[in-house]
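Structure tokens please, single chain.
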Amino acid sequence: MDAIARSRLPDPVPANEKHFMKCLRIMLAVLPKRSADEISGELFVAAYQRKLGHYSNEAINFLADRAMERCQWFPTIFECLEIIGDWRRNDEFVQRRILAQRLANRERDARQKERWEAERLDRWEVTQEQIDAMTEQAREFCASVGQIGKTEDGKYVPHAQTIEGEF
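Here you go.
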């Protein structure tokens, strides 16, 4: 799980040109822009496509939505990059990675809890309730290594009780 949680995400699929152009047209329709002749208009579109076209459809949607909410004028490429910098990827790969992180953390926590329990046993800080909650196999093992005691009548008890009983 740790390997999946730390793995590099694959690059997102770039926005398809049709979708990119649709979002650009919507922004152009909503946000005022200095008028341009046909040649500079083509260069304008090509420059935006070159600088922003590698972002996914979702990122371009985010850009268009935020630009229409925040900007009074059509944003420059620099402003578009700032806006898109706030976008957070949330596709199936990200969700899989989040799940792997969650599972790895849960496993780490469970192992840490087991270590703490073992340390408590090593210090003989175990209660009768905890011993009673153990499986028979765990009680036998703990008794065999001296972490808990076993009375003459076969009951497993905290080690301190067997020491007290000996005096």
